[in-house]
């Protein structure tokens, strides 16, 4: 197995990992933290994918994709926090005024899970943010301890995986997802 993580630039690869099975579906595309709530509610069906395609054409940093033996296998959303709703989120605090990047979604496709791809995605997202000049990367994973987490709701990642990647606890949050508190983890890149 060969896993390569690189910036998300190919629409078809992004669609394979975060696009819905039905083009008419009003889900995913990893837009909910990237765009204002009103626009997120307004974009329906194929318009969601078209919006992502436009972001890719504009060169907007969306994240990274993991490819296993050349096939799109996983996704990590990472972008400047200032360009996300985390810049205004009342449940997730700002530790300081550093222009950090946010890493908020990790998704591994069925058939590729259990192979360490989520770890590769975290490392790849950090490398991408570093290459773009990010002074630090923040994540907002679930602090689930040893409790099981529904895979659908595990998209922010798990605290232990970020700790393994060198992130440290920076702050508690008031955000709870699927019954688990989320914590603010940070990796300083300076």
Automatic annotation (TrEMBL):
Keywords: Acyltransferase, Transferase. CDD domains: NAT_SF. GO terms for molecular function: acyltransferase activity, transferring groups other than amino-acyl groups. It is an enzyme of class 2 (transferase). SUPFAM superfamilies: Acyl-CoA N-acyltransferases (Nat) (SSF55729). Its EC number is 2.3.-.-. The keyword Oxidoreductase does not apply. Gene3D superfamilies: 3.40.630.30. Transmembrane segments: none annotated. Pfam families: Acetyltransf_1. Residues 1-190 form the N-acetyltransferase domain. This is GNAT family N-acetyltransferase.
């Amino acid at each position: 197995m060969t896993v390569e993580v690189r910036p998300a630039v190919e629409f078809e690869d992004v669609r394979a990992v975060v696009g819905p099975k039905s083009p008419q579906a009003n889900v995913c595309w990893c837009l909910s933290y990237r765009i204002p709530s009103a626009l997120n509610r307004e974009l329906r069906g194929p318009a969601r994918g078209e919006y992502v395609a436009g972001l890719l054409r504009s060169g907007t940093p969306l994240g990274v994709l993991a490819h296993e033996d050349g096939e799109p296998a996983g996704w990590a959303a990472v972008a400047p926090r200032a360009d996300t709703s985390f810049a205004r989120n009342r449940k997730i605090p700002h530790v300081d005024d550093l222009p950090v990047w946010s890493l908020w979604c990790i998704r591994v496709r069925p058939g590729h899970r259990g192979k360490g791809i989520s770890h590769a995605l975290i490392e790849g997202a950090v490398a991408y943010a570093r290459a773009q000049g990010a002074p630090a990367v923040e994540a907002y994973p679930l602090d689930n301890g040893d409790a099981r987490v529904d895979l659908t709701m595990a998209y922010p990642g798990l605290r232990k995986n970020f700790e393994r990647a060198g992130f440290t606890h920076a702050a508690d949050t008031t955000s709870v997802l699927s019954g688990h508190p989320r914590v603010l983890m940070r990796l300083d890149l300076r």
